[in-house]
Specification:
The chain is of the alpha+beta class. It is built from 7 helices and 6 strands. Strand 4, helix 4 and strand 5 form a beta-alpha-beta unit.
Length: 239
């Protein structure tokens, strides 16, 4: 199965201009599609929105570019935030240092604009920011998902070393099963593969039961649009 075909089968939505990147897939989107991707993608871990791409070879260049982002226009000062960095470069030696410099730029932007700054929260922050650096290319993303999308929201408890829901969904999709013949999991444990197969057969968006996405904390969050997208996904389920 071609990678583009695989990604078209991972959800009940149509994705356009699909580009395969390193450990990522890039697609065109609007706000409605952003909400749909978070609720309906089956094999994605998170949906990131690019804020800025630039070149930086020093901490000053990184800071000077990051402070140009309109951080106060993205989220309210009352929201907690965290910054994660993934670097593959000789220009910066430690991901924590990169996170710190972007944090400094963000809080300085808030202070310059509003006279106050939001608080950092390491775990379960309302606003999640990712900084990816390859060589001298830096891309800063706003994470629209929050917790990994494999956490569907339907499990109350998990045993040790559970099979990831996105891996289970990927296995079902790559098997070529069309949902019209019996499906057997000969090594069924918690039933993760069977549940993902049922979601696929019923055209059921896997993350409808999740109640917390980071995009709900953004200033431009549209509750009515989010509810409309949810209703559309439910209406498209096979009965």
């Amino acid at each position: 199965m071609a990678l583009s075909q695989f990604w078209q089968r991972t959800s009940s939505i149509r994705l356009t201009n699909i580009q395969i990147l390193r450990r990522a897939v890039q697609v065109d989107y609007n706000k409605s599609l952003l909400y749909k991707m978070n609720m309906a993608l089956r094999t994605a871990l998170r949906v990131l929105v690019p804020l800025a791409t630039f070149k930086a070879e020093s901490d000053k260049e990184l800071y000077d570019q990051a402070i140009e982002i309109d951080w106060p226009g993205l989220f309210d000062i009352s929201k907690t935030f965290s910054i994660h960095a993934d670097i593959k470069t000789t220009h910066f030696k430690h991901s924590n240092f990169v996170s710190l410099k972007v944090k400094d730029a963000l809080v300085d932007k808030f202070r310059a604009t509003l006279g106050e700054r939001p608080n950092v929260q390491s775990n379960n922050a309302e606003i999640e920011i990712y900084v990816l650096i390859g060589g001298d290319k830096v891309t800063i993303y706003l994470d629209s998902s929050g917790e990994s999308l494999h956490k569907r929201g339907y499990k109350k408890f998990q045993n040790k070393a559970p099979l990831s829901e996105v891996l289970a969904a990927g296995l079902v999709i790559m098997s070529g099963w069309n949902g019209e013949t019996p499906f057997v999991d000969g090594m069924c444990g918690a039933g993760t593969i069977l549940i993902e197969a049922a979601f696929l057969a019923l055209n059921k968006a896997p993350n409808l039961k999740r109640r917390n996405f980071c995009f709900s904390h953004w200033k431009d969050f549209d509750l009515k649009l989010y509810q409309a997208v949810s209703r559309e996904l439910v209406a498209n389920e096979k009965k």
